[in-house]
Amino acid sequence: MSVPAPFEASALDGALDGAQDGAQEGPAEAPGPRGGPRRARDTVAAYVGLTKTRIIEQLLVVTVPAMLLAERAVPSVWLILATLVGGATAAASAHALNCVVDADIDAVMKRTARRPLARGQVPPRNALIFGLALGVLSSVWLGLTTNWLAAGLSVAAIAFYVLVYTMLLKRRTSQNIVWGGAAGCMPVVIGWAAVTGSVEWPALVMFGVIFFWTPPHFWALAMRYRDDYAAAGVPMLPVVATPAQVSLRIVVYSWVMVLWTLLLLPVTSWIYAAVAVLGGAWFVIRAHRLHSAVTAGRDVSPMKLFHLSNLYLCGLFAAIAVDAVVGLPALGPPF
């Protein structure tokens, strides 16, 4: 759950997977003999590896700004910490369960071949119990320390990521990341619910920002690792469509995302407005440049857009946080 998905998502081996797997992972290595403390450290490291901690860090980036906007100030430090701990644990649960389901394709793909299950560092049964236990722990923690709406939303996010994205969509349709990425959007809704005990329209707008951000973000990554996905039989869009078709969809989703960010203007000030407009223009220009390079047959570097997308999302949500804390008058309708 928690940058969202989360707490990805995406999150995913889609929106959520992108943050951790932007750099290719090397070939799997057979573990050598271990003993004593070193073996214990390796075991702990393997279980931590199941949780995809880098993705969790990104998810948490969007949770706090959502809480600040919900409060229009800084909520209690305890509430923020409790929400982040619960969100991180829920995200860890979803990622561990994802690793169990995807262990076979992780072993085939070069960029995921070093994951703990792919290397045989953790028995699948143990990983399954670990993931389920984290899910139960996160929901109980959020229910007791925030409210049961936030807890219920965290359970829904885990279930959607594992059952809908990982088990149903990922290997069956090129639209997998579009709809599966919804799990990585949940952290903003959970953060809002933790503060207010409800889900209001600004939370849904932030959900939509991440939802429309996910396809350009992950398709750029998938363009770089197209052969990896093809070898594993995963029909990511770059596997089943031409590069020009993929880059065109990236442009379309980028425009929709940027226009969607403007829906927050009624509850924010010129601080957020400036970042949303200027940052959005920057993102759209880079998406168009990628599409132009692809259609012209030039060498392209989709990873530049991938890394830019991370900076863009962090910057946009940082603007939400600053805007809420500074407390300038909201632009209001019709802004």
Uncertain ranges: 1-33
Architecture in CATH?
A: Orthogonal Bundle
Strand content: under 5%
Rg over C-alpha atoms, rounded to the nearest angstrom: 20 Å
Number of domains: 1
Number of helices: 15
CATH level 1 class label: Mainly Alpha
Structural class: mainly alpha
Biggest beta-sheet profile = none
Write down the secondary-structure element order: HHHHHHHHHHHHHHH
First-to-last CA distance = 32 Å
Shape: flat
> What is the helix fraction of residues, given as a range?
over 70%
CATH topology: Farnesyl Diphosphate Synthase
Mean pLDDT: 87
Tell me the total number of β-strands: 0
The gist of it:
This protein has helices spanning 17-21, 36-50, 53-71, 77-101, 103-108, 124-145, 148-169, 176-180, 186-196, 201-224, 226-232, 237-240, 243-261, 270-295, 302-326. The protein is mainly α and 335 residues long. The chain is built from 15 helices and no strands.
Describe this entry's structure for a reader.
By secondary structure, this protein is mainly α. The protein has a single domain (17-326), classed as Farnesyl Diphosphate Synthase (Orthogonal Bundle), CATH 1.10.600. The protein has helices spanning 17-21, 36-50, 53-71, 77-101, 103-108, 124-145, 148-169, 176-180, 186-196, 201-224, 226-232, 237-240, 243-261, 270-295, 302-326. The longest helix has 26 residues, at 270-295. Residues 1-33 have low confidence and may be disordered.
Q: Tags for this entry?
A:
single chain, 335 residues, mainly alpha, Farnesyl Diphosphate Synthase, flat, disordered N terminus
